[in-house]
């Protein structure tokens, strides 16, 4: 422990995140199992995931990139209309970040529409923060509020699980970690 | 100190509905431990958290604000019936100065945000949008909430016209 403190004091490394709290291995496995219920093909594409979620949703989902400068803090929206759903990302964001936002919104669709049996103790169906009206604002993550909303942690973990399912290449370690 | 006062009043408002802090936190999708930290004053309570707890427990927001104001500014906010017009005018500069301190900022921020969310909800209902989820990287202020309504309206109307 004293060695760690010494290294930290000399600025050689710092802890970004520990594996304590809800972001545990059990939650990651639960998210993978949850996405597994979509019965995606091996090396699924975005279209495969979108189609599978549409099947649960019962209506088409349109993916939209918004160029509106009005979206400042907001990085993604799920619009649930009577005859369709729309997932909105910000066009100015990096493509991989847009993808993560889109997966996050698709995860919300599943959390709202998937059958009860899909949810477990590790990955419970929890309500979004809302006003009683249509709008639901996801609790954001920051140093102040990280860990604030268990539902958001679960939704984000499912989004990561979708991203893992959509990796079409068997990347080497070098490709994965060094681009 | 202000944080603890806010926390105490939020807890009271929730308890008065017959609910409790744990149930309100669960319904709002918030971590109970984090909520306890806000209630004890250990952390600043973000406005969306306060609103979420109030909404999850159906607590009376107006009454909560009134109680907070009376507790945080007892000398500036006597009961309305005792304030003569001249008295109000005399107090106005002091009240404005006081507004820069935490108490009234909390109230005005809560009011503006709550109003904006109600307006967003109204416009979504008009559009036939039954649910709208927003992911964000920080707090969404009242201005952005109203801008979201414009963005959604444009998208929904154009998709329906296709």
CATH architecture of chain B: Orthogonal Bundle
CATH topology call of chain B = 434 Repressor (Amino-terminal Domain)
Oligomer: heterodimer
End-to-end gap of chain B? 56 Å
Features:
heterodimer, A: 179 residues, alpha+beta, Arc Repressor Mutant, subunit A, B: mainly alpha, elongated
Notes on the protein architecture:
- The complex is a heterodimer of chains A (179) and B (162).
- Chain A is of the alpha+beta class and 179 residues long.
- Chain A has one domain: Arc Repressor Mutant, subunit A (Orthogonal Bundle).
- Helix content of chain A is 41%, strand content 13%.
- In chain A, strands 1-3-2 form a 3-stranded mixed beta sheet, with helices on one face.
- With 162 residues, chain B is mostly helical.
- Chain B has one domain (2-161): lambda repressor-like DNA-binding domains (434 Repressor (Amino-terminal Domain)), CATH 1.10.260.
- Chain B is elongated and about 55 Å long.
- The chains are: A alpha+beta (179), B mainly alpha (162).
- Chains A and B meet through strand 1, strand 2, helix 4, strand 4 and helix 5 of A and helix 2, helix 4, helix 7, strand 1 and helix 8 of B.
- Strand 2 (74-81) of chain A pairs antiparallel with strand 1 of chain B, so a sheet runs across the interface.
Topology (SSEs and partners):
The complex is a heterodimer of chains A (179) and B (162).
Chain A: H1 2-9, H2 25-36, H3 46-57, E1 61-66, E2 74-81, E3 85-90, H4 95-113, E4 135-137, H5 150-165, H6 173-178
Parallel strand pairs in A: 1-3
Antiparallel strand pairs in A: 2-3
Chain B: H1 2-16, H2 21-28, H3 32-40, H4 47-57, H5 61-72, H6 85-99, H7 102-127, E1 129-136, H8 142-161
Helix pairs in contact in B: 1-5, 2-4, 4-7, 7-8
Summarize the structure.
With 179 residues, chain A is of the alpha+beta class. Chain A has six helices and four strands.
């Amino acid at each position: 422990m004293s060695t760690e403190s010494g290294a930290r004091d000399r600025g050689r490394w710092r802890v970004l995140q520990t594996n304590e709290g809800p972001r545990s291995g059990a939650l990651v496995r639960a998210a993978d199992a949850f996405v597994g219920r979509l019965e995606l093909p091996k090396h699924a594409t975005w279209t495969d995931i979108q189609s599978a979620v549409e099947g649960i949703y019962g209506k088409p989902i349109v993916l939209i990139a918004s160029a509106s400068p009005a979206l400042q803090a907001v990085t993604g929206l799920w619009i649930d209309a009577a005859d369709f759903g729309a997932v909105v990302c910000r066009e100015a964001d990096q493509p991989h970040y847009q993808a993560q936002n889109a997966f996050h919104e698709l995860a919300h669709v599943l959390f709202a529409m998937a059958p009860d049996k899909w949810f477990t103790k590790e990955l419970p169906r929890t309500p979004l923060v809302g006003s009683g009206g249509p709008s639901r604002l996801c609790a954001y993550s920051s140093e102040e509020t990280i860990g604030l909303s268990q539902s958001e942690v679960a939704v984000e973990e499912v989004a990561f699980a979708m991203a893992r399912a959509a990796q079409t290449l068997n990347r080497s370690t070098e490709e994965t970690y060094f681009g | 100190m202000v944080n603890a006062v806010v926390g105490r009043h939020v807890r009271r408002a929730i308890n008065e509905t017959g609910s409790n802090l744990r149930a309100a936190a669960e319904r709002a999708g918030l971590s109970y431990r984090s909520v306890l930290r806000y209630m004890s004053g250990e952390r600043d309570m973000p406005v969306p958290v306060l609103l979420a707890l109030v909404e999850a427990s159906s607590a009376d927001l107006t009454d909560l604000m009134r109680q907070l104001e009376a507790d945080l500014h007892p000398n500036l906010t006597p009961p309305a019936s005792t304030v003569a017009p001249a008295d109000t005018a005399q107090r106005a500069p002091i009240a404005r100065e006081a507004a820069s301190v935490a108490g009234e900022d909390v109230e005005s921020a809560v009011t503006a945000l709550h109003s904006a969310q109600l307006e967003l909800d109204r416009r979504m209902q008009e559009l036939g949008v039954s649910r709208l989820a927003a992911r964000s990287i920080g707090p969404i202020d009242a201005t952005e909430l109203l801008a979201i309504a414009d963005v959604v309206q444009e998208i929904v109307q154009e998709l329906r016209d296709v």
